[in-house]
Amino acid sequence: MRAGETAAFRSFMGGLVDYAGLFPPAALDMLAAVAEYAAHRREPEAWMLGRFIVPAGRLTELADARRAAKADQNPWALSLLVGARAGADAALAAAWAQGTATTAFLAEAGGRTTVEVLEAPIPGDVSGLEVPAFLGSYVETLAAGGLGGRELYLEVLPGADDVKVLEAINTLAAFERRFSRIGATLRCGGVTAEAVPGPERVAGFIATCRQLGLPLKCTAGLHHPVRHQAADPPVMMHGFLNVFGAGMLAHARGADLAVLTDCVRETDPAAFRFSADGFAWRDHEVPAADLARARDGFLAGFGSCSFAEPRDDLRSLGLM
Fold this sequence. Notes:
The protein has helices at 7-13, 30-40, 59-69, 88-109, 130-147, 162-170, 199-212, 240-253, 257-265, 288-297, 308-316; strands at 17-19, 49-55, 76-81, 113-121, 151-156, 181-187, 216-219, 228-229, 236-237, 272-274, 278-281, 284-287, 299-304. The protein is of the alpha/beta class and 320 residues long. α4 runs parallel beside α5 and α8 (240-253) crosses α10.
């Protein structure tokens, strides 16, 4: 542990940032993304770095890039994007094909690559009472295709009824014998203003996941620690200390929706503190031991197309 860091900070941030350099706004080509992730794995801050996020259809490209890079040949853990956004039929067909292809790929990889996490969007044409039936077919197809035994996070797309969809995901508890964990993914941003959910939606999503006991993963838009005004797109962007701080308050303290919303809205970096005793946002505190429990059972992390930005911002705040 280095000067400025606390055990509480390490519990909060450990493995929190999955690397998504293939995706906008970075949108690196595979060789560049592989080289960047490999470099980050050698840094002193690598303890904050999570898995490499890759679409299932690009696994062969990933393997070729790793061979070409001739570096960091130690095993890599992946978060694999599966399914499809286009529609229910396309998602089910893709899940089966991706499962069988991934199984074959991993057998050939011989332990140099593992898939620990699956991330799958719930297609936008699945609505209302259809959601539970579709999700049951979805997870069965993923498992039958050879992708069972892993953590599975289902992304709730913008425009959905979050509570109804999260309740439907919660009915999949019976399928957890097929997966090590089933949870929900919230998209926190994107390259357009419309892709950024409001603080109320983020807080409500966290509160509902906590109420249902659903593990939570986030993706997109969380490059910086604290909520701030962005230039492109010109909108207030969420901070990962805000979102995961609210998650900590929900999990460990049962904070109500008003408190969670205010935490998500916070723009003052000084309002977030780490000490030997734990984490605090303003006068709301979470003991260090509760941080580890929340990360283990509730807050899985987030995908970011940059690891350097969150790392450098945390340094500038004096947290590292």
